[in-house]
Amino acid sequence: MTAMPNMIELLLERSILAQALIGFEQRIGSIRSNLRFLLSVNEETKTISSVTEVFGSHRQSATRKSRGRSIWVALIAFTLVVVLLVVLLADRLFHPEKFQINEIEVKGEFNHVDGQQIKEVVESYLVGNYFSASLLKLETHIEALPWVFSASLRRVWPSTLQVEIVEVQPVAKWGEDRWVNFTGDLVARQETQKAARLPLIDGPEKQRSMIWENFQTWSSLFGEHGLILNELKLDHGHLWYLDVSLGALAATYKESASASAAVLLDHSITVIVEKQEAKEKVERLIDVLKQELLLKFSRIHSIDLRYPNGFAVGWIEELANTTDADEISSESQ
Fold first, then answer.
1. Which residue range(s) make up the domain with 158?
2. Whether residue 108 is found in the same domain as residue 223
3. Taking Cα atoms as reference points, which of 218, 212, 217, 169 lies closest to residue 194?
């Protein structure tokens, strides 16, 4: 009898356990189905997001293209407007009948240039108005006039052309038909009495700058001792020829009653020196002239510096005791 209750209890326990297992399996199945649902929802969300991104990128690209087209259209329209304004403005500014030049001013310090002639040249060659006239061409025509070294034109608002003139200021003659301007440039020689009193310079034109520099240096050296450098020539054999006179010192260095100041003023001596070491030899000559030869200046015809240790003096035959040239050593002075 006792065995029967035990069997019944065992069966009941197994039935309860089976039901519990069934319920657990159902819950697990429900959880699995929920997980599958969540995974499917996540995949769909990713798909929707990717689709949204694709559509968004296409939309942004279309927006950018639309903006780019709008910018290009605006730039083209702006350019056309600017071009139109420039054309209209140019037509107004460069029209010959508008903005005409009504006054011509000539400025500068000059003694030989005719200001009225400058104005007539400008009026003759003036083409265009205040804005369109070619100032460079006008300057070229003005600089072709005698005594004009350079011309500079500028516009002065509202209707004036100002002409700045630099006149030729000769400081020496170059060869037979040109001058050396104060700038060192060679210019065409004009007829004037002043030209007769200018020193003469000549030599190869390619060496013009060097010749002009030597003239300035030696002219200053001779001038410090009351002497005048009348001529400076460089031949193609590289020999310098200097013509030197007493100038203002003529009255001071009278040698005798027979040698008047007028004779000394007209007298000059020729100095010959090689191009090499010319500067040093000319300086030594000036020292010797100061010491003793200056008193015998009117008797000297020429001085040859082409000696290594001195120079030769050529005396004027009428005043000299001998016709032979005396050689003087600079080392003994």
1. 103-167
2. no
3. 169
- Domain-embedded: residue 189: no
Same-domain check for residues 132 and 205? no
Residue type present at position 77: A
- pLDDT for the residue 257: 40
pTM attached to this predicted model: 0.63
Lowest mean per-residue pLDDT among 114-123, 194-203, 255-264: 255-264
DSSP 8-state symbol, 207: G
What is the DSSP secondary structure assignment for residue 179, as one 8-state letter? E
Q: Provide the pLDDT confidence category of residue 130 given band limits of 50, 70 and 90.
A: confident
CA distance 271 to 240: 8
Any long-range contacts for 299-303 (C-beta under 8 Å, 24+ apart)?
Answer: 299/255, 300/269, 301/269, 301/270, 302/269, 302/270, 302/271, 302/272, 303/269, 303/270, 303/271, 303/272
Please give the Cα distance from 200 to 223 (Å, whole number): 16
- Helix/strand number for the chain, H first, E second: 6, 13
Q: Report the distance separating Cα 212 and Cα 186, nearest Å.
A: 11
Are the CB atoms for 284 and 291 separated by under 8 Å?
no
Q: pLDDT of 104-113, one tens digit each? A: 999 999 889 9
Read off the pLDDT of residues 246-274 as tens digits, 9 standing for 90 and up: 876 665 655 544 455 555 667 899 999 99
At 278, which amino acid appears? Answer: A
Q: Is residue 190 in a domain? A: no
Within a domain: residue 182?
no
State the pLDDT at residue 293.
Answer: 77
